[in-house]
Amino acid sequence: MREDLGDEADSFLGSYLCAPKKALRINTLKIGQDEEDRLTSGMERVPWEAHGYYYADTDEPGKSPLHSAGAYYIQEPSAMAPVNLLDVRPGMCVLDLCAAPGGKSTQIAARLMGQGVLIANEIVPERAKILSQNIERMGIANAVVTNHDPADLKAVFPASFDRILVDAPCSGEGMFRKDDTAIAEWSEDNVRLCAARQADILDAAAVMLKPGGRLVYSTCTFSKEEDEIQAARFLANNTGLHSTVMGRFAGMRTCDMENAYKIWPQDGYGEGHFMAVFERDGRAGEGEVDMACGYAGRLEKGLGNKEKQSISSYVDFLKESFIDGDLRQKLLDTKRLFYFKDRLCLMPECGLPSLAGLRVIRAGLELGEIRKGRFIPAHALALHVDTSDARSCIDLSGDDARLRDYLNGQTLRCGEYENLCYEMKDPASENNGWCLMAVSGVSLGWVKRSNGMFKNHYPKGLRINY
Question: 238 and 358 share a domain?
Fold first, then answer.
């Protein structure tokens, strides 16, 4: 590092005596601009992310019910930079090839604005589950979570994606200031191992990029073998690709490769990061592959006639739980409804790509399941919908102590919440039924009113012991 940094080496080493920067990113799928301004008042913005903000060491946003509701994602500030360089736009097909735990995937999904489709892949099964949980928490409806080796994906998705992010597993030198595990696991052998793995991942990614498509390669290390040398090898070994100019923000420095940047901790914006941008020759749309072929080649067809007849309880639930509007009409679109692992789900409007033979953790928006003729709504559905669409909702302020009872899984007495629960059903109808729980206008989960009680349906695996 002294050889690379010269006179600046002391400043770099001295930065490791300082606390790392902490940041969060507002989820624009659930939070409007006015609410964002209120939540982030007085906070400094991360230079390369319009909705990213630094917070103080004394703050604990992860303990807020708004975090559980998916109002924001706690993300290392430098890790927000690669997606900005990816230039994602609504309607695109995007692949996040090394996606866990989900910070960049959820950032991509926000930029898709519910249009297009995101394939978020993670090779490690346990990390894929965490990725899926974060996709759910942020209310994302147009994502598919897969658990596969990138080499297997390239056979399924040749020339299929407008954008690909390869935030590759690396030796983690850029995380030394905040992660003792990265220090303990570092070795020269591990650097070489990571470089070999990265080469395989990048070469697989190149096969899946459309003409005119963009690929961003990023790491959280300073190692040239994993950064500049790796990016140069990728460019030399994959014909039809070129590096491309990208926007540069405060805190991004040029490095020993054209059209690539590094973020250094001594500059005070975040931890170490490397980024390089590549594009495939040609124009967008040339040789485009039809992505709407569906899981096992059938998802795009939606429900068959017999299946449509079996969802009457789901239709009744929608009519009882949501006002007649755009959301209810979307959730009733049988061309987009399908069963995945015995759960009723909603595919994106553009359809789903073929996932035949792949390990899929999550496909589209999980709506719920039908048990003994009754529809049980999924937690994912609660996190996706807006409170303004709900016929019945309990909306508590973020500092209301009763939210702890809900997040802890306790049964709630109706009398304590009745004045807070707005009801737009027919006054003559029965009061029992599903009710949305919310914090400061952001949906949080379900309760079911029955016999003077609200039965708590917050998932057991997510409950918090205070």
Answer: no
Write down the pTM of the prediction. Answer: 0.93
Range of the domain at 193: 2-280
For 107-163, write each residue's pLDDT tens digit.
Answer: 999 999 999 999 999 999 999 999 999 999 999 999 999 999 999 999 889 999 999
Q: Can 93 be counted among the known catalytic residues?
A: no
Would 286 be classed as within a structural domain? no
Q: 93, 98, 194, 220: which one is catalytic?
A: 220
Q: What is the bridge-based pairing of β-strands 273-280 and 241-243?
A: antiparallel
Residues 270 and 378 in one domain: no
